[in-house]
Design a protein that fits this description.
Layout (H helix, E strand, L loop, with lengths): L4 E6 L6 E6 L7 E4 H5 L7 H23 L6 E13 L2 E14 L5 H14 L1 H5 L5 E7 L1
Parallel strand pairs: 5-6
Antiparallel strand pairs: 1-2, 2-3, 4-5
Length: 141
């Protein structure tokens, strides 16, 4: 399975402007640039897209792991906070913090947390981001 996305960028620095598009069409010529990444201009940025991908992948993986353990989540919501910081040679993603809130009938908080950590370790996006420290906070609703 191969999924694609594309980015187009014109100009330089603060004056540069870009657009991203995904194969599915969910994003279609969505704007991004210095101002959407480092300021508050409307549009997207790479870190936000990584956060969305990570939250989605982790939560889906957890739903499968819960099912294998005999549980069905009534609801789960994950927020991914992606930290971009200036480092010696430019900028780097230095951390990702996942915050999970879920209601899983029959699963106590310890079991829910254990299975969530298994999902964090095993989801493909976590594996792709293995060089970045990923923390997890779990709240049972």
């Amino acid at each position: 399975m191969i999924r694609t996305a594309s980015a187009r960028y014109e100009g330089f620095g603060k004056a540069g402007k870009g657009h991203v598009t995904t194969q599915s069409g969910v994003l279609s010529d969505n704007p991004y640039g210095f101002n959407t990444r480092f300021e508050d201009e409307p549009g997207t940025n790479p870190e936000e897209l990584i956060g969305a991908a990570h939250a989605g992948c982790f939560t889906m993986a957890l739903s499968l792991i819960l099912n294998e353990a005999g549980f069905t989540a009534e609801s789960m919501e994950t927020t991914a906070k992606v930290t971009l910081e200036k480092v010696e040679d430019g900028f780097a993603i230095t951390a990702i913090h996942l915050t999970l809130t879920g209601k899983v009938p029959g699963a106590d908080e310890a079991t829910f947390t254990e299975l969530a950590n298994k999902a964090k370790a095993g989801c493909p996006i976590s594996k792709a981001l293995a060089s970045v420290p990923i923390s997890l906070e779990v709240h049972a609703a």
